[in-house]
Structure formats: C-alpha cells, structure tokens
C-alpha cells in the first residue's frame, strides 16, 4: 500500500524488480502501473536486457529474431553482442539474432531452407536457390520442398538440367531424362533401335541400331562391324582390320600400347621379326646377315671370313 512518501509499492523491499527497496522510486528499465500493489514489467526494446527477457535487441520490431515481447522467434538464434559493455552488472549484453540456414524454417533473407546444408538439391548451404531449381515453402515449420523449374529436365539422380546427360534422352511430356539402351551412348528413345551413338564394342547400323562389332574388334568405327579402331586380345590392328598374325615384315606390338595392340613394321634390316629392333629377326633384308636372331651389315667385327654360322639372307 502506498503511504507517505512512497512512489510505488510492489509488496516487497527488493530492488531490481521495478520498484526499489524503499519504495521511493520506480526503476527505469521497468514499466510500472502504480496501484495497490504496484505491478512492474520489464520494458522490451529499451536496449536493457534483464534476466527475465529471453532476448533484447533494442527494438520493438517482430520478424528480426527477437519479438516485440522479447521472446526468441522461431527460425532464429540469438547470441550476446560481443561488443557489449555495461557499468551496471544487472544488465546483460544485447542480442544479435540471425536466421539458421538448414533448420528447415525459411526466415529473414533465406531464399529457401530445405533442412540441410547440402548444395545441388535445390537449396544450397547458404540457403540460396540452386540454378535450375525452385523451392516451395510448406505450411507449418516443415522444410521447403524443391523441384526443377519449368522446362528443366530432372534426372534419375535428382539433378535439374537444361539438357539430359550422356546415355539419356529427354522426355518432354514430363521433363525427365530417360535411360538409353545400355549399348547406346546417345539416343532418342529407350530402344536399341533408337540410338544415335554406341558404346565401343558396338557400331551404329542403319543409323539407328547399335549392333556388335566383329569378334576380333574391341572397338569398331561407327559404320561397320569389321572396321576396327582397336582389337580384342590375341589380335593386332592392321589398318582397320584385326588380325591374329601380322603380315611378313611386321610384328605384333602389344607393348607400346597394351590396350590397343598393333602390327608394326620390322626394323629396316629385318625381313621378318617378332619384335622391334634388330635382335629378334628370323631373316634379314638384302645386304644384311643373320647371326642368331640379329641382323647386321657385316658378319664379324674384324672382317674375317664368313663362317658356317653366318649366312647371307635370301633376297
Ligand atoms: Ca528490456
Ligand atoms: Ca525485435
Ligand atoms: Ca532457416
Ligand atoms: Ca540443400
């Protein structure tokens, strides 16, 4: 009860609750209704944060993280202003409130929030919308639902693309990418007869069908089963043909490029050979002599008589 010189009386003699300990004054950070008893409430937005205020950002605005009644708004996180200093230990630092990207609640400047910090699924790690996507808010506090923009194709692995990737074809009726036949690398439809390019061991027959290359070919050209660009094991490429034994004067080279063995010409001194160089010859060209498997211009280093172990090659 307010008596004598009392300005307020909240029924106690404690300060820091709006009416000071001797009831001589109200406290500035409270709003008091003088009566019997006096009822004091903290002033929200006055820039003075009291313990009972969940947050205090110095304003009475809503939708900035700290509400006009000093409660933390959904979708925000409030932390103490690190620059705060106060002579009054009863006062606490003001709050700095920010939205939380990835909490599934779209707030503030977030263009989207799909509940994660993964990019490429429509909404990126900073809550901006990924290229070719749109994100829709869901009522309640559920995360946004993102999908491809109009006239953008969605792939089987959930990407949004302007053109379908290799091995797929565009389906305009629902803007998805359909899988080509496994033998096709490009196609207009799902069938093996709707191809425009083939995997290595197939070739494009009649411009639309992928048919297997000849059994000797690992890869054949786009036009023919027997025009090869590389050969299967046991064959060597000679021109565009795969042969199991190279022509006379050539040897099968599977060392230089093991993935694509080719027929290579023997050394100029060798008429027939099994390897590069002059040391694996089985006969020599005119003017050269075979010693063991080696062709040389002279029989011996000292120019002595040709023995039985040396013979001039047949021409
Ligand atoms: Ca306050
Ligand atoms: Ca506020
Ligand atoms: Ca958010
Ligand atoms: Ca995401």
Could you explain how this protein is built, in words?
This protein has 315 residues and is mainly β. The protein has a domain of 37 residues. The chain contains no helices and 25 strands. The strands form 12 sheets. A 3-stranded antiparallel sheet has the order 24-23-25, with no helix packed on it. A two-stranded antiparallel ribbon has the order 1-2. β17 and β18 form a beta hairpin. Bound molecules: calcium ion (4 copies). One calcium ion (CA) binds next to loops.
Q: Which sequence of SSEs, written as H and E, runs from N to C?
A: EEEEEEEEEEEEEEEEEEEEEEEEE
Q: Which percent range fits the helix content?
A: under 10%
Q: Which ions, cofactors or small ligands are bound in this entry?
A: calcium ion
Question: What is the terminal-to-terminal distance?
Answer: 136 Å
Give the overall form: elongated
Can you tell me the residue ranges where pLDDT is under 50 for at least 5 consecutive residues?
A: 302-315
Q: Give the oligomeric state of the chains in this entry, treating copies of one chain as homo and distinct chains as hetero.
A: single chain
The main pleated sheet reads as:
3 strands, antiparallel
Number of helices: 0
Keywords:
mainly beta, elongated, binds calcium ion, three-stranded antiparallel beta sheet, disordered C terminus, 0% helix, 315 residues
Write the layout of secondary structure elements.
Layout: E1 30-33, E2 39-42, E3 76-80, E4 95-99, E5 133-136, E6 145-148, E7 153-154, E8 160-161, E9 168-171, E10 176-179, E11 184-187, E12 195-198, E13 202-205, E14 209-212, E15 217-220, E16 228-231, E17 236-238, E18 241-243, E19 250-253, E20 262-265, E21 270-273, E22 281-284, E23 289-291, E24 294-296, E25 311-312
Antiparallel strand pairs: 1-2, 3-4, 5-6, 7-8, 9-10, 11-12, 13-14, 15-16, 17-18, 19-20, 21-22, 23-24, 23-25
One calcium ion binds at residues 114, 116, 118, 121, 123.
């Amino acid at each position: 009860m307010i008596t004598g010189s009392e300005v307020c009386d909240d029924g106690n003699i404690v300060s820091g609750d709006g009416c000071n300990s001797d009831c001589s004054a109200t406290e500035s950070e409270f709003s008091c209704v003088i009566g019997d008893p006096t009822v004091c409430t903290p002033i929200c937005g006055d820039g003075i944060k009291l313990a009972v205020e969940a947050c205090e950002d110095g304003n009475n605005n809503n939708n900035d993280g700290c509400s006009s009644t000093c409660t933390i708004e959904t979708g925000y996180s409030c932390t103490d202003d690190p620059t705060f200093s106060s002579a009054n230990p009863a006062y606490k630092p003001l709050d700095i409130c920010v939205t939380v990207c990835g909490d599934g609640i779209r707030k503030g400047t977030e263009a989207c929030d799909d509940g994660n910090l993964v990019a490429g699924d429509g909404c990126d790690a900073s809550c901006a919308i990924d290229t070719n996507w749109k994100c829709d808010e869901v009522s309640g506090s559920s995360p946004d639902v993102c999908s491809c923009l109009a006239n953008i194709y969605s792939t089987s692995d959930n990407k949004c693309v302007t053109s379908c990737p290799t091995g797929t074809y565009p389906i305009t009726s629902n803007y998805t990418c359909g899988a080509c036949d496994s033998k096709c690398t490009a196609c207009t439809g799902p069938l093996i007869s709707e191809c425009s390019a083939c995997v290595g061991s197939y070739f494009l027959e009649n411009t639309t069908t992928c048919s297997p290359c000849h059994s000797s070919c690992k890869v054949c050209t786009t036009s023919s089963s027997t025009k090869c660009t590389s050969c299967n094991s046991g064959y060597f490429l000679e021109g565009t043909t795969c042969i199991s034994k190279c022509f006379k004067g050539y040897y099968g080279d599977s060392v230089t490029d093991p993935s694509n063995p080719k027929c290579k010409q023997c050394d100029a001194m060798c008429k027939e050979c099994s390897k590069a160089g002059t040391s694996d010859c089985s006969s020599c060209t005119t003017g050269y002599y075979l010693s063991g498997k080696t062709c040389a211009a002279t029989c011996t280093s000292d120019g002595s008589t040709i023995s039985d172990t040396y013979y001039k090659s047949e021409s």
